[in-house]
Specification:
Growth Hormone, Chain: A; mainly alpha; about 0% strand; globular; 17 helices
């Protein structure tokens, strides 16, 4: 395993002096952890810290409904604003990282998330929920969305890109694993306000690690990307917003973009919008305690990590389109069975669903990102940001409509069935994405 994360510094020998004027160490070292892996670890921890707030909405629907009398549709609307802004911010964040650097953008984003979470403690009206949960947290978490992972992966890795994408994607599930049981316990024992404070502090704790350990580009430390040849750091890209919109217009003229955006919108609808937002209140409707339902979501997070990393490994070896088709088909089948599994207690069929669904939760990300990279090259991180925007728009619609359906029909059954049918549609869409001829990048063997 050590051989996978070590590399001699010979490939860095051609690099320039460091940005602080000190010369680069050109002494070959046979065993040395490549800086790319340190950056990847910091990115992983950052996503965990930023994702902490995403553990809250499903836990707070009932407490906020009880305390303020707000309808589930009204609360769902605030969650949908958060999710939509999360997605719409992502492509601009990727361009801003090109302009101002990863460190600066991420530090500002973490601070914005913390501000929104803390401000929500004093809210008394639903419009404040829209501002704090929707606007501030949506903008902050969107700036650390999967486009952040794509930017880090594209800059720092040539070899192991699929694996690293899977690991970084699993960071969100790891945050869910850490914070869901904790926040559920805090909400049940001490109320929802201490839980909001907890996730705000989690975001702030990560800031020093980002500032001290994160670097924007391998050339900043005189290195080649992992498994690749040394390249000079490009000049900061100006006109970030204009470039982001231009990339969207260029990509929108191609068929694969709409197929990728459509499948990923269904992905968001059937995960963040559906399970993350409405699973806990739905299980509670059937008599299951909130802490038990939240623990099941945390277990989804455990298997999500396994499934996503394995999906990254598969993406390096198999056709990404077929992988997506299999993932969506299996997800749709599992959702059709979920209404029959709801009960006051946790029983083996529900445990099977949780394990099965967890393995598939965001396994779609590595192949989707690989297809963006295959189709759109250097603009792939920004294109993926727009594809992610569609993911979050799909999530936002179901977060809102799921709450409305519960208010109207008195249960979530119709939502589960509709989402299962959508996943079947996504499987078919994935199969018709055309394959793009691609010139392989030169890869330097990692020793």
């Amino acid at each position: 395993m050590l051989g996978d994360v070590t590399q001699t510094t010979d490939s860095a020998a051609a690099g320039p002096a460091q940005d602080d004027g000190r010369p680069v160490d050109r002494t070959p070292s046979r065993l040395r952890i490549h800086r790319a892996w340190i950056v990847a670890v910091v990115t992983f921890v950052t996503i965990i810290g930023g994702a902490a707030f995403n553990s809250l909405p499903g836990l707070l629907i009932d407490p906020l409904h009880t305390e303020f009398g707000w309808s589930r549709g009204e609360i769902g609307l605030a969650v949908s604003i958060d999710m939509a802004l999360y997605g719409l911010t992502a492509p601009f964040a990727a361009a801003l990282m090109d302009r101002f650097g990863i460190r600066r953008v991420v530090v500002v984003a973490l601070s914005t998330v913390a501000a929104g979470a803390l401000a929500s403690v004093w809210m008394t009206a639903s419009w404040q929920l829209m501002i704090y949960w929707g606007l501030l947290v949506g903008l902050g978490t969107g700036s650390m969305a999967l486009a952040f992972s794509a930017t880090v992966t594209n800059r720092w890795f040539v070899a192991r890109r699929g694996l690293v994408t899977g690991i970084l994607t699993a960071a969100g599930a790891s945050g869910q694993l850490v914070f869901l049981p904790l926040c559920a316990w805090i909400v049940e024992e001490h109320g929802w306000r201490p839980a909001s404070v907890t996730v705000a502090l989690a975001a702030l704790v990560v800031v020093p690690f980002v500032w001290l350990l994160m670097r924007d580009h391998p050339a900043d430390v005189g290195l080649a990307p992992y498994g690749g040849a040394y390249v000079e750091k490009p000049e900061p890209a100006r006109g970030a917003a204009a470039r982001t919109v231009r990339v969207l217009f260029d990509a929108a003229r191609t068929g694969p973009f709409w197929l990728l955006a459509g499948t990923f919108a269904i992905c968001g609808a059937s995960t963040n919008g559906l399970i993350r937002t409405h699973f806990v209140p739905s299980a509670h409707d059937h008599g299951m305690p909130i802490t038990a339902a939240a623990s099941l979501l945390a277990v989804i997070g455990v298997f999500d990590i396994i499934g996503t990393v394995f999906s990254g490994w598969l993406t390096d070896r198999f056709d990404a389109r077929r992988l997506l088709a299999v993932y969506y088909a299996l997800r749709g089948i599992s959702l059709l069975f979920l209404p029959m599994l709801m009960a006051p207690t946790v029983h083996p069929p529900m445990v099977f669903f949780i394990v099965f669904y967890g393995l598939d939760w965001v396994a779609t990300v590595p192949p989707t990102l690989a297809l963006c990279r295959e189709q759109y090259g250097e603009d792939s991180a920004i294109v993926f940001g727009w594809v992610l925007a569609s993911h979050q728009v799909g999530a936002a619609l179901v977060a809102f409509l799921g709450g409305v359906a519960r208010d109207v029909f008195g249960s979530y059954d119709m939502v589960w069935y509709a989402s299962g049918a959508l996943c079947a549609t996504a499987a078919l869409m994935a199969l018709v994405i055309r394959r793009q001829a691609q010139t392989p990048e030169p890869v330097v063997a990692a020793r």
